[in-house]
């Protein structure tokens, strides 16, 4: 009954004029990474408000919502899970982390990954063994590989860059543009905090990086330095 009520509310909040725009933005056409996904046309701020409203939704109910065919329903479920995670004790956090990794097939677009992986994977792992990130980075699933690198955003915020650089090395040869963007983004976040660390990594690897990854990584550099990387003239 609770899920039916939530989905009824989501349906009422939908804006049909936004649906086509979102479908194009999230690449839902045949053969695209979000092929077949459905949208209601609800903005993220509204969904965050609903996550606060329904923050006491049970894990089982959130799991049902996560399996919805509608993109916004899945994002809402993940936002609720993140709230549950930070409000919970270690037993709750263990359960949510396991649940998340068992249901990655429903975390199937970049915004869903980005809203959840730093918390439900990165924060959870903390100083635990990094085998989870290694496994995700080696996955045949695009979204699991993105989880691996985006999860390291948590470590970056703690000024710990080792895992980001390690997973970035694993993903240097990845064929997917969305991984190139994610790795470049995380490298840029490292550069914001510790230029020398990012520069050492880039000088070693920039010639072998996909162009998109490199462009994202060097976006904030001074123009002369950025051009040197793009032209391959960095010493």
In terms of DSSP E residues, the strand content is under 5%
Query: What's the helical proportion of residues?
Result: 55-70%
Computed CA radius of gyration, to the nearest angstrom: 19 Å
Total number of domains: 2
The biggest sheet, with number of strands, parallel, antiparallel or mixed sense and barrel status, is: none
CATH architecture of the largest domain, by name, is Alpha Horseshoe
Oligomer: single chain
Which structural class do the helices and strands define? Answer: mainly alpha
- Tally the helices: 15
What is the CATH level 1 assignment of the largest domain?
Answer: Mainly Alpha
Quick one: overall form? Answer: globular
Number of extended strands: 0
Could you give the order of the helices and strands? HHHHHHHHHHHHHHH
The average pLDDT score comes to: 96
What is the CA-CA span between the terminal residues? Answer: 63 Å
Descriptive overview:
- The chain contains 15 helices and no strands.
- The protein has 235 residues and is mostly helical.
- It folds into two domains: 1-107, no CATH class; 126-235, Leucine-rich Repeat Variant.
- Helix 9 (142-151) packs parallel to helix 12 (177-193).
- The chain is globular and about 65 Å long.
- The relative contact order is 0.07.
Task: Please provide a brief summary of the model.
With about 240 residues, the chain is mainly α.
List the defining traits of the structure above.
mainly alpha; Leucine-rich Repeat Variant
